[in-house]
Structure formats: structure tokens, C-alpha cells
Design a protein that fits this description.
Elements: E1 2-7, H1 19-22, H2 27-38, E2 43-48, H3 52-60, E3 67-71, H4 80-89, E4 93-97, E5 119-122, H5 127-139
Parallel strand pairs: 1-2, 1-3, 3-4, 4-5
The chain binds 1,3,4-trihydroxy-5-OXO-cyclohexanecarboxylic acid.
């Protein structure tokens, strides 16, 4: 299985932004954590961008046979373009948020992605990505 992990705007700043919401771990720590948990059970690729267009272009390379874990960050709340890209390629995806967006400002309660997601994990910090990966590994096991 090809498993992709996509992180959106400002997640390259993990470890340097709002520790109360996002903890003290860096994006590299987060990715290493996932790699350690997944091991050789999937072909893992990571991508982070602060640009909506780059994320859309990246999603276009995925297929329905792939699996995607995506934290679109602020673009979750605004991007019809990312939603349309996900619908176009039909990649099964789990939406992850490090913080509990429902305990924060109301504008973070709206997601353009959740309605077409395989599942959604919010508020479990970096664990959310590992749990999402474990779910995909379990559900695609023979
Ligand atoms: C986030 C929550 C978003 O509202 C915010 O814009 C982010 C990160 C999270 O992981 O908790 O950048 O997606």
C-alpha cells in the first residue's frame, strides 16, 4: 500500500507555533513518529506545503488504490479546491487535526473535507496521524 501524509500551511512551524495547541514536537519529529510506527508495512511519503495549489497538484498524483492522511490546516476551513481534488482522484483519506478544532474558534468548526472523508481524527496531537495510519494498515490487510 502507498500511504501519503500531507500537511498544509504553517505545519512546517510545529515546535515553534502555539505550543498550547500544537505541542513542542517539530514536523520532522511527527514524520519520524509515523515512519517508526508504520515501518515496512506501507510505502510512506510525506509532503508539506504552505500553498493551496501545490497541495492540489500533489493530490492529483494519487489514486483510489492509495491511502492519504491529510491535515490541510487552515485550508480545511476554506478550500473547495482541495475538496474537489480529493473527489476527483477518489483517494480514501482520513482528515487529521492536531488540536481539538471544536474547542476553538467557530471558524475552525467548518471543514470542507469531513463530509467526503473516510474518517476524521481531531485533538489527539501527533497520535492522530499514527492512529489514522494504523486504521488504514488494518483495513487493507489481507
Ligand atoms: C489544525 C487546525 C487548524 O484550524 C489550523 O488552522 C491549523 C492546524 C490542527 O492540526 O489542529 O493550522 O489543522
Amino acid at each position: 500500500m502507498r500511504l501519503f501524509v500531507v500537511n498544509g500551511p504553517n505545519l512546517n512551524m510545529l515546535g515553534r507555533r502555539e505550543a498550547g495547541f500544537y505541542g513542542t514536537f517539530s514536523l520532522a519529529d511527527l514524520e519520524k513518529n509515523i515512519r517508526t510506527a508504520v515501518g515496512t508495512r506501507a510505502e510512506l511519503s510525506f509532503f508539506q506545503s504552505n500553498s493551496e495549489g501545490e497541495i492540489i497538484d500533489y493530490i492529483h498524483k494519487l489514486t483510489a488504490d492509495d491511502r492519504l492522511i491529510i491535515n490541510a490546516a487552515s485550508l480545511t476551513h476554506t478550500s473547495i479546491g482541495i475538496r474537489d481534488a480529493l473527489s476527483a482522484v477518489k483517494v480514501p483519506f482520513i482528515e487529521v487535526h492536531i488540536s481539538n478544532v471544536y474547542a476553538r474558534e467557530e471558524f475552525r468548526h467548518q471543514s470542507y473535507l469531513s463530509a467526503i472523508a473516510h474518517g476524521v481524527i481531531v485533538g489527539l496531537g501527533a497520535d492522530g496521524y499514527v492512529l489514522a495510519a494504523e486504521h488504514f494498515l488494518k483495513s487493507t490487510a489481507a
